Amino acid sequence: MNFPLLMHIASISPRALLFVVGEHAHSRYFSEDACELAAEPKELYVVPGANHVDLYDKTDLIPFDKLEEFFTKNLA
Q1: What domain range includes position 57?
Q2: What is the pLDDT of residues 37-60, one digit of tens each?
Q3: What domain count does the chain have?
Q4: Is position 36 within any domain?
């Protein structure tokens, strides 16, 4: 790859990070790698039964409660 995707992870963290990924997402490994490299506070939230595309438009799978909890806690 020509673009070093994780090159700026240190610039983003230690701000609170929430990685949301589908259990069966083909790109799950990338979120796991990014979460491993990020500083605390961080959380990896795996949506059971979901793939990558499901989290774009399947509103029954999008974890709105988790997102609301994260933003309420970290943007207060």
Answers
A1: 9-74
A2: 999 999 999 999 999 899 999 999
A3: 1
A4: yes
